[in-house]
Amino acid sequence: MTQGLLRETEVQMKKAVEALENDLKSIRTGRASPALVERLQVEYYGTLTPLNQLATISAPEPQLLAIRPYDPSSLRDIERAILSSDLGLTPNNDGKLIRLNIPPLNEERRTELARLVGRRAEEYKVTIRNYRRDTLAELREFEKEKLISEDEFYRARDDLQELTDRYIEQIDQVQARKEQEIKEI
Description:
Elements: H1 2-25, E1 41-44, E2 47-50, E3 55-61, E4 64-69, H2 75-84, E5 91-93, E6 98-101, H3 107-144, H4 150-183
Antiparallel strand pairs: 1-2, 3-4, 4-6, 5-6
Helix pairs in contact: 1-3, 1-4, 3-4
């Protein structure tokens, strides 16, 4: 009973780490990456749609992104979405293609992005801790209802703490990797 609950919690924690990795892909580093804009929401015929469903995104050069919409009439909408995003990029529209020049990051912007990565990582750590709290409450309930013994409760609690520590460490590693990417010149 406790092992099944711990397995469910581990799956949730693993998904949280994967979500953090996906979330951090949208944070700009010094080089162009399609992941930077692919999840950008574009208002297309009154519906918010991810950019990767409206256009092909490529990085033909290390400092350039090219966005080619499937429907040329959506160029203006894509351009508007890029301008209103917090990316700090100005699109160049030639009527068929949008080009995004990725300027090198200055030291101030690098520090700001590293802080943003830290905040996002902390949000996911809180999520992991919330999973731990919820699972611990369920374990206490099992013990109270005499579904598990006191020894089983303490053993499961220790296993849960180990699990939590392991996933918090993974989040720290993801955060350190992204901060290193940002600080590379």
